[in-house]
Amino acid sequence: MGACFSSSAGDHQIPKVHQMQTVHEVGLCFESENIGKVGSLFSKVGAKGTNQDSAVLCQKYGMEDGVLGGVFDGHGVNGHEVSQIVKARLPGLLLSQMKLLADAHNSKKTLAMYNVVEKWKEATVSAFKAMDKEIKFTPNSDFKASGTTAVLVIKQGEDLVIANLGDSRAVLGTVTNHGIVALPLTIDHKPSVADEAERIKQCNGRVLALAKEPHILRLWLPFEDVPGLAMTRALGDFQLKSHGVIPVPEILHHRISPADQFVVLATDGVWDVLSNERVMSIASSVENKEGVAEAIVHAATAEWKTKYPNATIDDCTVVYLSLKDA
């Protein structure tokens, strides 16, 4: 798989070495100064206690100059466990699914005759479904009301494949005559999205806001006022899987242009207080790639204190992927 750098609990730029399953062998995700060649990642725990966010950034992923970045925002009592499982397993599962597709066409050379981007899309959907099954059958666990978001960016040559479910987000920074512009690469999967809400209702789930939070729509079981999930797609959350919550990501392909500069992935702790444009501005103003993710996270936590002084600061996690000299 190549080198993988990951982040989770507390304030972390590059944490300890850990093992990750790959297609061919168990490799190592380790800390290295070379992370600055492709970008950076940083996670800061909020005021709720345990950091339920996690993130990963892998070099030489799928090809020599390939990169994978991902952020995962857990929720529910055991959400931190779910996000950690996904961080550790999803990159390897995705490569495994690509290998299965290659084997189905007898060789990678044969696979190259087909649209490789479409194969990445197909493999990504399969990997997310397989990941959800792994979470469900994790021994000694209870994830019926716990889960995680997941947003991935996969760089293969000049192609980006973006996969998203939940309300974490990916945004592209691209240069125009007016400076850096934010181009959203994902759509937040929230009950306020008409198509998403309709699927929940068709599966007998309920979409309602609490009286104290009239601006936040949540998902509820048909005859019980639980769990109040504020998103419509997730890994885990098994009590809602029969009521419209799905583990199927939305996939986007983007061909990198000379104007494209970087991609920022972040959990909603960042996007709840910083606009896409503000994040792009911060990312473009930091000279050292290794410091971009940390700068965005610190800006977000400062904004929480200013904008919502009486609120509980959420966990904030960022992956920054440079598209220049990556």
Automatic annotation (TrEMBL):
Alphabetical list of CDD domains matching this protein: PP2Cc
Residue span, PPM-type phosphatase domain: 38-323
Protein name: PPM-type phosphatase domain-containing protein
Pfam families tied to this protein: PP2C
GO molecular function, one term: protein serine/threonine phosphatase activity
PROSITE patterns, per the entry: PPM_2
Gene3D superfamilies cross-referenced by the UniProt entry: PPM-type phosphatase domain
SUPFAM superfamilies assigned to the protein according to its UniProt record, in alphabetical order: PP2C-like
Source organism superkingdom: Eukaryota
InterPro entries registered for this protein in UniProt: PP2C, PPM-type-like_dom_sf, PPM-type_phosphatase-like_dom
